[in-house]
Design a protein that fits this description.
Order of helices and strands: HHH
Largest sheet: none
Mean pLDDT: 81
Number of helices: 3
Number of strands: 0
Radius of gyration: 25 Å
Strand content: under 5%
Structural class: mainly alpha
């Protein structure tokens, strides 16, 4: 046996086992962001924006159309893709 061996508990604080303060970033339903349903008006604005500015111009569409403040360019892209898959455009 090695004479310089010390069990982990005698080495002091171990960063891997100490608890962190603050909120946890778990995957539970209470930590997920709130989703907002698309209104018919928003869908129409998205269709008109793509018609006017072209597919892929999400930043221009977002800036020049009147979407709710919580919509992002990613939201627009995803909604457009879903509308295409559903055959609505």
């Amino acid at each position: 046996a090695r004479s310089d061996f010390k069990p982990r508990s005698s080495l002091g604080s171990d960063k891997r086992t100490t608890k962190r303060s603050g909120s946890s970033k778990g995957s539970g339903k209470y930590n997920e962001p709130k989703t907002h349903k698309w209104t018919a008006e928003e869908v129409e604005q998205l269709k008109e924006g793509v018609k006017r500015y072209g597919e892929g111009k999400w930043k221009e569409i977002l800036e020049l159309c009147t979407f709710e403040n919580y919509r992002t360019t990613i939201n627009l892209k995803d909604k457009w893709r879903n509308l295409q898959r559903a055959g609505e455009v």
